[in-house]
Write a structure and sequence with these properties.
The chain is mainly α and 384 residues long. It folds into 3 domains: 93 residues, no CATH class; 43 residues, no CATH class; 173 residues, no CATH class. Helix content is 46%, strand content 1%. The protein has 15 helices and 2 strands. Strands 1-2 form a two-stranded antiparallel sheet. The chain is extended and about 95 Å long. The chain starts with a helix and ends with a helix.
Length: 384
């Protein structure tokens, strides 16, 4: 007999959720349709369908947490625990709110989102990975190609066919020098039938002065290079072009990266002053313009504030360029998502506290012709 009663009750249990949903939707349409249906959807929230109710509106996002009435903003608005209490100009009774709660309780809870591991790879020591196996073993020319091809093969993507020599030449010229090849240069490459013709062209372009001019621009963008100070005053920085030329020459001379970095931060103090053979190179002051080309507020007459803003800018720029970290947020508070506390920002800034612009420093031109021209122009300016 007990089993028979349970079997007879099964249809009632199965139909319970739809009945609850119908009652809740009917109630919401009666009380809320004036402001949240059809063309008149306040805050882009509509009660026309269960899916639209769950999705919520622009102000609070999802209105319902399925299976959890107390966590649903809709219930919080109906009860007044979240302002403003809804519906405006009228309140639902406890029984009516219970009807909506029963419907939300009947909805199956959504699966919890997959937990994500903490984003820490920028702070971990790089590991050497074995190049993956690939199906098309003839395509890779080096181990890096195998990583690229393995990813492509996992997505069933085939590599593009080799570019024709004419297309390849234009790509190389534009990429390395920023200029297209002349007809004569293009013919020279097309007529070169040697197996290392491409390598020879690349070597020739890397030896071109245009290479440093093209690729030095990318670094100058990172270094905030400009020939004026920016902001309200925007005064000219008369000799900052010497830093620009130093960057171009560093690229063209294939300067090692560690020296490239050290000279821009340490400059003439590249070597420790405690060394017996310490002899600073006066030319080493030119690359330290990296620390000076920041925007400079000349209209601000509060010296301490100008100094503080300068140090904060240099700290932020140095970290962004050389560490790839936006530590500037930590000037005012601990970083919101990177493990950078505010105290570390000022620890880092302490390295720049002793930096001063030596206005009396004279750095002669290395190029005798440039030196002669500069002296002639200077004398002419004095005569005028």
């Amino acid at each position: 007999m007990r089993c028979l009663i349970q079997l007879l009750l099964l249809p009632l249990v199965a139909n319970a959720a739809p009945i609850t949903e119908t009652a809740a939707l009917t109630l919401l349409k009666e009380k809320c349709a004036a402001c949240h249906s059809g063309a008149n959807k306040s805050s882009d929230f509509s009660i026309e369908s269960p899916a639209q109710i769950i999705a919520g509106g622009k102000k609070l996002g999802r209105a319902i947490a399925p299976g959890h009435p107390s966590q649903s903003p809709l219930i919080q608005l109906l009860k007044g625990t979240l302002n403003p209490r809804m519906p405006l100009g009228g309140e639902l009774s406890a029984t009516e709110i219970a009807t909506v709660e029963a419907w939300i309780q009947s909805l199956p809870p959504e699966p919890a989102p997959a937990t994500q591991t903490e984003w820490r790879w920028p702070y971990e020591k790089p590991l050497k990975h074995t190049p993956p196996a690939v199906r098309n073993t003839a395509w890779p020319r080096n181990e890096i190609d195998r990583f690229i091809l393995a990813k492509m093969e996992s997505a069933n993507i085939a590599p593009a066919p080799p570019a024709p020599k004419r297309t390849l030449a234009r790509r190389l010229y534009l990429d390395l020098t920023g200029l297209p090849p002349s007809p004569e240069e293009l013919d020279q490459f097309l007529n070169d039938q040697s197996p290392n013709a491409t390598e020879r062209l690349i070597d020739r372009l890397l030896a071109s002065p245009r290479y440093g001019e093209r690729w030095g621009r990318h670094w100058l963008d990172l270094a905030r290079y400009a020939e004026t100070s920016g902001l309200e005053g925007d005064g000219a920085i008369g000799n900052v072009w010497r830093y620009r030329d130093w960057v171009i020459d560093a690229f063209n001379s294939n300067m090692p990266y560690d020296k490239f970095v050290l000279q821009q931060i340490g400059g003439g103090d590249e070597h420790s002053k405690t060394r017996n053979n310490y002899a600073p190179d006066v030319q080493g002051h030119i690359p330290t313009a990296f620390l000076r080309v920041a925007p400079w507020d000349r209209s601000n007459l509060v010296a301490a504030e100008v100094r503080s803003n300068y140090q904060a800018e240099v700290t932020t720029a140095t970290a962004s360029v050389f560490l790839g970290l936006t530590v500037g947020c930590a000037r005012c508070h601990d970083h919101k998502y990177d493990p950078i506390p505010q105290k570390d920002f000022y620890r880092f800034q302490a390295f720049f506290n002793a930096t001063q612009a030596d206005r009396g420093l004279d750095v002669p031109y290395k190029d005798p012709a440039m030196k002669e021209q500069a002296e002639a122009e200077s004398n002419g300016w004095k005569l005028n």
